[in-house]
Amino acid sequence: MNHPQMNIRFTYPILIFFLIILSCSLEEIGANKKTDAQHLVNSYHHYLFTGRILGAIANGSSSRMQNYTFHNVEATKIIYKTKTIDQVDIFASGIILIPKTTGTTIVVSYQHQGDLIKKRTAPSLSKMGANELSHAAIIASTGFIVLVPDYLEYGDSKHKNHSFEHKASLAQNGLDFIKASKEYLNIKK
After folding, report:
1. DSSP for 116-163?
2. Which among 19, 83, 112, 171 is most buried, taking Cβ atoms within 10 Å?
3. What residue ranges do the domains of the chain occupy?
4. What is the pLDDT along the chain (189 residues), one digit of tens a residue?
């Protein structure tokens, strides 16, 4: 049975992904160079998404997804240093999704819409389900490394008040997460 709302729920994030894709190869972000961690604080295994389940979800939302191979995806929680809207140092969190594939992998920054009211739905606090992390995991399972930063003051920094769509702090948070992810990839090599 075809559920139009379910199709929108899964198709919309995929469309957004392609509209705001920020991609580059690992060599372009310098993941082949060893550096001292300046942004990365810690990393933890978060979850292992199976390609079979991700493929079933994706194929259930769109017949166009049947042409893709869905790989297992390792989700790792990243704790990193960034700054608040007031330029105060803070630890924030996000998830890096790495597909279990071989060969060159493209890195994508997934800037999600999230739920601004429910702080418990931050990607680093989520598992499998109808949420932003699952949408990003579907993208990762097709062969991309996907970076999913939590909104600042969500996830590990949820004890702070959220600055609601403050352009500069959102941009800085995203950039710092990319840098921390680069450091993580350097260490993981």
Report:
1. SS-GGGSGGG--SSSSHHHHHHHHHHTTEEEEEEPPTTSGGGTTSPP-
2. 112
3. 4-188
4. 444 444 445 554 554 444 344 344 444 444 444 446 799 999 999 889 999 999 888 887 666 777 788 999 999 999 999 988 888 888 999 999 999 998 788 999 998 766 555 656 677 777 666 678 888 999 999 999 999 998 776 665 555 555 556 678 788 889 999 999 999 999 987
